Amino acid sequence: MSLTVHFCSLLTVIKTHLLELNCFQSGIQDECIIRNERRSTRLYLFIFLISLFNIGLYYSFIPYTQTILIPSPTFIKYSTLSKEVSLQCPCTKIAVKYDEFVEMKPVYHELCQSDFISDEYIHQLYILYEQTWNRSISTDFHRIATFQFQTLRTLCQLTQKTVKYNLQTFLQKEFVKTQMISTDELEIQMASLIEDFIDSTPKTFLRTLKFIQNITAQSLLMTGASLTSVLPRVQFRQIALESVPYSGMIYTFANVSSCTCSSSTATNCMGLSTLKNDTVPGFQTGCYMFNALLNSTLEVFHNQTYVNVLTNSSNYYQKLNGSISNFTIETLLSSMFVTHWSNKTYFERYFNNCAPNLCQYTVTKQHGFLSIIIRLIGFFGGLSSVLRIIAPFIITTLWPIIWKFLTRQQTSVPQIVETGVNTSKVEF
Question: What is the pLDDT of residues 348-359, one digit of tens each?
Fold first, then answer.
């Protein structure tokens, strides 16, 4: 027997078996019942195979997500995984103080660390003041220098104490998060908080300072630029003993403008100070010494020649080393004499304080062949049970109704055509 004949006979046997296959044998030998059982078997197998094929195709193309759990993660493990996936790590300690993971340090203007606010420098200015006051004009630098640099020293000390207190208060605040955040998010949030702190710290201080200035100006207190700042102590005692009303000092500045300190315009009465008939660049004097100081700059103290002339010494007091700027004392004071802040956020310290005992992340995967087979096996029993009920119902109940409806439709169509033909013959 040839291979072709053998193959054809095999196909015939398979076809016969498929046609006679009966999965719903009831044992009844009625030919009509057996035929319905075989039809139900074919319908059952057809729907079953199509359903399994569609389910397998669905799982082949549709991805799924899987949650990976990492118990007690270390910082190194977290750092490695966080670069690849989005981790979710609940904190065991949800409130962490800033000082546990943040370091902040202000860097102050060099004036506040220089010789210009030292006792020795201020004493030297006072000696020069006593030696020259009786032959100097009202705008002379030495008439105000002692007072002004004492004020600068006080401002440096006061701002440093204020900044230190506010910084300690800020670092005691708590960073509250139930879920640990990433390095970038921590940097962004802390940068915003630190910026707000740096911006708000001087405001209360300056508000108080402005309030004192306004009260002083409105009440015309210390009119005449405070006699103790422009006259030696002995001379001031003599004037104080004489019960003579103070008429008010008159200032005449290098630009020929003049003003009287007893008038209501005293707060605006200021101009450049002088030394040996030359103006001192940037350094102002006037009725209200503090107002004049706030409007002064430190540019003259970046020049060693000027420093030597002002102190009547040779390189004993060193000039300021920083770059020359035209910032006024008021501008420097608005930043609390802080030129910049050195701050660092340590993520590892935050991680250790947050102390997550579990991290998790989700990954998206495609179903593998073995996974699809397992899922199909899982569907097998349920799908088979449902189809064993549905297939016989369709064949024995629904199909006769459908067949009867289709047969009725087919028989009604020729009658209509025949009637039309007869009518046409009559008309013809």
Answer: 999 999 999 999
**pLDDT for res 414:** 52
Residue range of the domain that includes 183: 102-345
Residue ranges of E strands in 346-418? 358-365
- The C-alpha atoms of residue 284 and residue 257 are separated, in whole angstroms, by 14
Which uninterrupted H or E stretch holds 159? Answer: helix 141-171
Token code pair at residue 62: 């549709």
Element (H, E) at 259: strand 258-260
- Tell me what the pLDDT averaged over the chain comes to: 82
Angstrom distance (rounded) from CA 428 to CA 417: 17
User: Burial, 324: exposed, middle or buried (Cβ in 10 Å; 0-12, 13-18, 19+)?
Assistant: middle
Question: 160 and 247: one domain?
Answer: yes
Question: Residue 132 is encoded by which pair of tokens?
Answer: 């020259």
pLDDT of residue 220: 53
Tell me the C-alpha distance between 280 and 396, whole Å: 116
Three-class SS of residue 356?
coil
119 and 228 both lie in a single domain: yes
Domain contains 86: no
Residues of the chain with pLDDT under 70: 1, 7, 17-20, 216-248, 262-265, 412-428
- Token pair 């997500």 is found at 65
Strands 102-108 and 95-97: unpaired
Rg of the chain over CA atoms, in angstroms?
49
Cα distances from 310 to residues 253, 320, 326, 386, 426, in angstroms, run: 19, 14, 19, 106, 139
Residue 12 lies in a domain: no
Tell me how far CA of residue 219 lies from CA of 71, 106, 214, 245, 258, in angstroms.
70, 37, 8, 17, 22
CB hemisphere CA count around 54 (13 angstroms)? 7
Report pTM: 0.69
